[in-house]
Queue: 4 jobs
Job 1
Amino acid sequence: MRVAVLSGKGGTGKTFVSVNLASVAQNATYLDCDVEEPNGQLFLKPEKVSTLPVTVPLPAFDGEKCTGCRKCVDFCHFNALVFVRNQPMVFAEVCHSCGGCTLVCPEGAVKESLREVGCVKEGVAGDVRVVTGILNLGEVSAVPVIKAVLQKSKNERGLTVIDCPPGSGCSVMESVSQADYCVLVAEPTAFGFHNLKMVHKLVRLLQKPCGIVINKANGEYPLLNQFCAETNTPLLLRIPYDAKVAERTAAGQVAVLQEAAMAEIFRNLLTQIRKEAVQ
Ligand code: SF4
Ligand code: SF4
C-alpha cells in the first residue's frame, strides 16, 4: 500500500508523521518527494547510500541547418526560447523539456542533450528503505525528480510512505498520483485550517481516499472537527504537543524508536489507515 502524507503548508509535522509511520511498519519504503527540502534523511540516517543523477532533455540548435524561420520560438509556450542574431537560444532553467521545438523544426536543426536537474539517493535505515529526491538549487520544476523518486516505489510488498512537498501545486499532484491513501496533517490554527481545506480539495479532486491527523493538538479546534464531519473525512489521530518529543525531533531522533508509547500511537494509526483504505 502506498500512503501519501501531505500538508497544506510547511512546518505542520508532515515529515514527523511520515518518518514515524515508515519506522513503525515492517520493511517499509520511505520516499521523500519534498525534493526542495528533503529532511527525512536527517532523521532516518540511511546507510549504504547510492546516488543516481536525474536528467531532462534540453534542446540544442545546429547553426548550420537552422534557417531562422522562428517556428520553434513561436511554438514554445513556456517562453524558454528567444531569437538572437537570427538564431534561437534556450534558457535552460525555463525549458520544460516538452520536446515541441524538436518536433516543429522543419530543418531537423534541433537536437536534444541531457541536463542534470537533481538526483535520487537510496539507502537503508534498519528495515526501512530510504529514497530521497534532491532538486538542484535554482530549478523551477520539481516534477522530474519526483517522478524519478516514485519510480522506486514499484514492486514493493510492504508499506510505502510518500512524504509530499508542502502546498497544493503541481509537485504535490505528482507526488500523490500513485497513492492508495492520503494522510493530511494539519495544525489546529486558522492558517493551518485554511491550508488543510486547500489540500483536502486537491485529494478529493484526484479521487483519493483521505484522513486527517491533527498535530500539536492541545485543546479543541471546533472548526476542524466540524469540517471532518461535514466532509465525511475521518479524523485519524490527534497528536498533542509534547516538549520532550519536540526536543528529540529537533535532535534528529525518530520518536517511535525512542518511546514505546509513541510507537503504539503510530502502530494504531497504521492499522486505522489500512482499515480506511480498503473501505
Ligand atoms: S523543449 Fe519545449 S519548453 Fe523547452 S524550449 Fe523546446 S518548446 Fe520550449
Ligand atoms: S524551427 Fe528550426 S530552422 Fe526554424 S528557427 Fe527553429 S531551429 Fe531554426
Job 2
Amino acid sequence: MRNLKKDYTYWNQLTKSDIDDNIKQALNENINYYDELIMGIPGSHLDENEFGKETNVLNGSTYLQVLINNPNHIGVHTLGKFEPYFKGTHKLERDVINVISEDILDGKAADVDGYVSSGGTEGNLQAIWIYRNYFKSLNENSQTRSEYDNTCIVCSADTHYSIDKAADVFNVNLKKISVDNRSRELAYEELKVTLETLQNKGTKNIIFIVNMMTTMFGSVDQIGKIVPILKASNLNYKIHVDGAYGGFLYPFTIENPEISFKNKEITSFSLDAHKMLQAPYGTGLFLIRKGYFENTKTKSASYVVGKDYTLIGSRSGANAISIYKILFNYGPYDWQEKMLNLVSRAKWFYEEIQQLNIESIYFKGSNIIAINQKHITQETASKFGLVSDDSKNPTWYKVVVMVHVKRAKLLMLIQDLSDHD
Ligand SMILES: Cc1ncc(COP(=O)(O)O)c(C=O)c1O
C-alpha cells in the first residue's frame, strides 16, 4: 500500500455544502448568458424548454436520470451489431441519427451511419481518419515517401482550425485556398492551380472540406462551383461537410439547400449540437454514407460487441438523450420557427447598422454579422463580448444572434456603434 502524505497542497476533503458553495461561487464568476452582454460566441445557456431554470431539470428530469444511469454508447449503433446492455438508449440515439440524416439532411436514413460525437472537432477528425484510410486502401501498392503522402486535405482559408488539427493528428497534407475578402468565396483559379501542382507532385487523393457556415462569417462554400473543378482535376476526391456551425440552422433557413445528402458528391457531415441546438457541451454528430466506417474499424477492440469505429471510445448516452429531447420537443416546424426568428433578428441588426454605414458582412439565412474592426473599440468588444477573427490582429468582430441575444441588447450595441462613429 502506498504511504500517503500527511499534507496535501491542493487536495482535502470538503463537506457537501462547502462543495456546493464553491460551485455556486464559481458559477457566479462565470459569464451569465441570461443577463449579460455576450454577443460574439455561438453558445448560449442550455435549451430553455428542456433545461430551463424553472423546469424540473433540477429535480429529476429524464436527462438527469439517464446521466445518473450512465449508459455507455461506445461504438456506432447504426452498423447493426452493438453492446446489448444499453439497447434502450442506443435505439434513441439511432432515432436521432435517422431524424438528422433523413429529415434534416435529406438523405435516406437506411443509407447513413452515424454516432453522437463530442462535437465538431471530433466529427471532423473522424472524417479525415476515415478518408485517409480509405485512400490508403485504394493506393495500397503506390510508392510514396510516407504512407499518406499521396493524400491532401483542401479547404478554404475560412475553414475551422479543427481541420488543421486533423491534418496534424493523421499526418495528412493540408492546403488552404484564399477567399475573397467580401464574398468569402474560394479563389477558384487558385483552387485549380493548387490541384494541378499537387498532382504534379504526386498527390492522388483529395479530401475536400465544404463549409456549411464558417465560424467567423457564417459563409457557405459554393459546392456547385467546387465539384466541377475537382472533377476536372482527375484526382480521386471525397467531400466532407463541416456543418458544426450550420448543421441545425442552414437546412432550415435556406430554400433548396445545395448541401445535403441529396447531393451525391457529399459523403459525410459533422454537426454540433452544443451550438444552435443548445445541448450540453460535448455533444455533436458525425454522419457518413454506409460503407465507409469499415475504414476506421479497430479490430483489436475485442471486448466491444460490434467493435469500435470511433475516435472517442466510451461516451455518455446522456448526450444522445439531450439531442433526442430537444429535437422531439420542438419537432420540425417549431424548430424552423426558432431558427428563422434568430435569422430575422440578425438581418434586422445588419440592416440597422448598414444605415449607419458600418462595414459589415452578412449572409442570407445566417445569424452571424461580422463587423470591420475599424468600427469597434476595445471597450465595445469587451462590453458586448464580441469575438474577433484574430485575437492579436483583428480584422473582423462578430455578433452571433443566439436566443439570449435579444433585440434590446442589440439596440444597445447599435447605440454604441453610432456613438463611436
Ligand atoms: C465550422 C466549425 N467547425 C468546427 C468547429 C469545432 O467544433 P467544437 O468546438 O464543437 O469541437 C467549430 C466551432 O466553433 C466550427 O464553427
Job 3
Amino acid sequence: MREPWVVDGHCDSLYEFLAQKRSLTQAHEGGHWDLERARHGGVALQFMAAFIESEYKPHRAMQRGLELLEAAQRFVQINKDRVFLIKEQKDLAQIPHAHKIALLLAVEGGEIIGESLFMLPIIYALGVRSLTLTWNQRNALADGVGEHLTGSKLTRFGQAVIKEMNALGMLIDVSHLNEAGFWHVLELSSQPIVASHSCARKLCPHVRNLSDEQLRALGRAGGVVGVYFYPRFLVDNGPATRQDVVKHIIHMAEVAGVEAVGLGSDFDGIDNTPAGLEDCSRYPLLAQDLSHAGFTDEEIGKIFGKNFIRVLSTVLK
Ligand SMILES: [Zn+2]
C-alpha cells in the first residue's frame, strides 16, 4: 500500500514552543510532535491548538490564549519555508504539499472569548479556524464534561457563538463538551462539526468519550471524530497499544461510517501514548494495521485525512 497522508485534528505542542522548551523542529528535543517527525510520519495538516490551562481561567484565559496565538504566528514565521497556515477554503487544495506541512490554528477552550462575541472575529483575524467550545469546566458558552451532571444545554451566549462561528466559517469542535451541549450544537449548527479528539464510550466508558448515538448523529450530520490516542480513554485500565486505536477506529466506522472517522492524537498534550504510537512519526504503522484489519487503501486515506479535509472544505470560507 502507498503510505497515506495524515490530518491530525489535535496537538498541544504550542505551549512548549512558547515556553522555549523546544523549537518543535527537531526530533532530538523530545516530546511527541515536531516538523522532522511529522514529515517522516506523513503529516500533511496539523491542527495546532492553543490549549488554555486551568490555572489561567477565568480571568487570564483571554490573555493566555492570545499569548499562545502569538507564539503560533511566530512559529509559522520562523519556519515559513516548512509550514503554511490554512486560512481559506482554497488553501486546502495545497494539501498534501510537496515540501510544507499545513497548520490550522485552533483554540481549546471558549474562555478565550470570555463573554464577548466580538472576540470571535478578532481571533478569526488572528488566523484561528477552529474552536473547542469548552474544556472540562463550565464556561460562558456551555458546560464541559466535568460538569456533565448538570445536563445543561448551551447558554444564550453559547448559542450566539454557534451562529457567529457558522457565519464566519469557523470549525466547531465538541470534544470536552457535555452531552446535552453536544446535542444542542448539532441541533443549532448549519455546518458539520467535529469532535477533534475523542474515543468510543462503548469500548471505554469514560465521560470524555462519545456514545454510539452521538457517533451516529455526528456521522449523519457530515461531521468527523478524531480518534484520540490517550491510553486512559482507549482502554478501561492499564497500558494501551496501537491495536486499541485500531479497535476504536473499527467501532466508529461500523457505527458512524468510515466517512466520520479521523485522527486526533493530542500529541504533547498527553502524558503517555499507546505502545507503537509514541510520536507523530508512527502513523505509517497505524495505516498498516488498518490495512491488515481489512480497510481498503481508499478508506484508510479518508480516515487518515480526507474526511477532515471534506469537513473543512464545507466550513471554511
Ligand atoms: Zn483536550
Job 4
Amino acid sequence: MKYNVERNTKYDFAGQSYSTKYPNLHRYPATMIPQIGIELLKEFDIRQGKMLDPYCGSGSSFAAALELGINEMQGYDINPFAVLLTKAKFTKIDTEEARETRKELRNNIFEFLKDENNLNKLPIPNITNIDYWFSKEVTQNLNVIKHFVYQIKDENIRNLFLIPFAETVRACSYTRNSEFKLYRMKPELIANFNPDALNMYFSNLKKVLSIYEIVYYPKLKNDVKISVEYKKFEPKEQYFDVVLTSPPYGDSRTTVAYGQFSNFSNEWMDISYARKIDSMMMGGKKVNTIYQDGLIADHLKEIDAQCNKRALEVSSYYKDLENSIEKVASSLKNGAYSIYIVGNRQVKAVQLPTDQFIAEKFEKNSFKHIITYERLLGNKSMPSKNSPSNKTGAKKSTMTMEYIVVCQKDK
Ligand SMILES: C[S@@+](CC[C@H](N)C(=O)[O-])C[C@H]1O[C@@H](n2cnc3c(N)ncnc32)[C@H](O)[C@@H]1O
C-alpha cells in the first residue's frame, strides 16, 4: 500500500489551547483541541449526519461537530468520569433552574452543618486509603457536599453539579495537582495544607455554571441529540456517517493513566471498579502471543528481541485497536469518513507507526486511505517525555508529532 503522509501546518494551531475556543469544565488528560476537529470537518465537507466517537474522553469531537451543524452524536468511553464530563457539557438543562438549585444547595448544606451531630448520620464514603489522601475535615465536608448533590432530582443538573465536585475532590486531596498520576504531596506541604472544601466547591460551581451557560448552552439547539455511555463501543451496522476520534496511543499503564487521573472522582461517585479502570482500557489485558499481522509485526519482533514481556504488552494494545477498528468500520455507512488522531510512541527505542497501522486496518475493512497529516504536538495536555526503555532517568522526548489519519469507506 502506498501511504501518503503530508506535513500540514494548518493543523498545528500553534499557541492555541482547548480553552481558546472551548474552555473545559474540568481538566482531562490528552485532550484534542476542538479547533482541529472543526478544521477537519470543514476540509472534508462533513456537515451533517451521525457522528461516532468510540473514545470520547472529554467530548472535544462533539464540540467540533456542533460547530459544523452535525446534530446527532454517540460517544463511548470506559472511564465513567469522562462520560460524566461529556454528558455535563452536551446536555441541555434549564439554566434558571440550575441557578435556583445552587442557592438551595448552599442553604441546605449550611443548615445541615449547624448541628455537628448531623455529620455522623451520613454513610462513610468508600474510598481506598481515605486517610492517606484526605484530612478528616476535608472528608467530612466532601461527604456533606456529595450527600446534597445526590439529592438533586434533575439528573442532568446533578451531573453538571458533580463536575465541580470532582474538581474539589482532587484539589482538596493530598495529590500533587500538577500530575495526572496520583502522587502524594511532600509531608512538609501536607502539614500546612488546609483547604476549605465547601468554599472551593461553590466557587468551582460558579465557574462551571458560567462556562456552561456562555460556551455550551447556546450551541445545544433543540434538535441536537448526543448520547454518551461508559462502555466499550459495540458495532451498529452501517449506522454512522463519520467517526472522529483520538484513541489512546498505548496502554494506560505505560502511557496516559486516564483511570488513575479520574480515580478519586470515580470513587467518590461510587464507581466500585474505579481502581481497575486502567487495566480495562485498550492494551490492559495480557495476551500470550506476539501480534503478527501486517507492518507492525517487524517492529514488535524488534521489541521482542529486547524484552518479550514488553512485546506482549504492546501486542495487546494492537490487538485491541484492530478489534475496535473492525467494529467501527462495519458501523460506518458506505462513503463515510473515519478520522483518527494518534501519536506514535517509542518502546525500547523502537518507533511504532500506529498511524500507518490504523490506515492498514481500515483498508482491510473496505476503506481507502485518503491522507495522513502530520501536525506538531504543541498543545496536547500529556507528558511530552517518557521513559521509552523503561530505565529510570532515561527520559526522551517521544511525541513531538501527531498524525491525523483520514480514510473513506468504499461507496
Ligand atoms: C486520547 S483520550 C480521548 C480524548 C478526547 N478526544 C478528548 O479530547 O477529551 C482516549 C480515551 O479513550 C478512553 N479509552 C481507553 N480504552 C478504551 C476502550 N477500550 N473503550 C473506550 N474508551 C477507552 C480513555 O478513557 C480516554 O478517555
